[in-house]
Structure formats: C-alpha cells, structure tokens
Amino acid sequence: MIIKIILVGLLIYMVVNLFLAMRIMLKDTPPDKPMSKYIGRRVLTSVCIVLIILIAMATGLIHPNPRPY
C-alpha cells in the first residue's frame, strides 16, 4: 500500500512541475528561473516512478494484471 501512495505522490509532483514550467513559458517577462529546471525535475520524477515500479514488481510487492485473453 505504501508503494502506491509514494507513486501517487510522485505523479502529483510531476504534474505540478509541468504546470510550473507552463506558467514560465507563458510569461512575457524574462523568467527568474529557467523552464528547463522544471522539465528536468519532471523527467527525473518519471524515471524514479518507472524504477520504483520495476523494483516493486521484481520483489513481489505489486503484481501486474494477468493477460486479458
């Protein structure tokens, strides 16, 4: 259960960084922080999510759905 909570938290963090990058992109004035900072955080978060899912599947903490046929 804790794995699922961590994954949901990371997904929310990823979406927040996406909207922060969009806000900087839409500003007319020069940004005080570069947009690549938020996009980089988003990419790093998605890599962490994939690694956590793979490790959890390998250790048996979560199980993938069975084949649909």
From TrEMBL:
Spell out the Pfam families in the cross-references.
Answer: DUF2909 (PF11137)
Q: What is this protein called?
A: DUF2909 domain-containing protein
Record carries keyword Transmembrane helix: yes
Annotated InterPro entries = DUF2909
Alphabetic keyword roster: Membrane, Transmembrane, Transmembrane helix
* Residue intervals passing through the bilayer: 6-22, 43-63
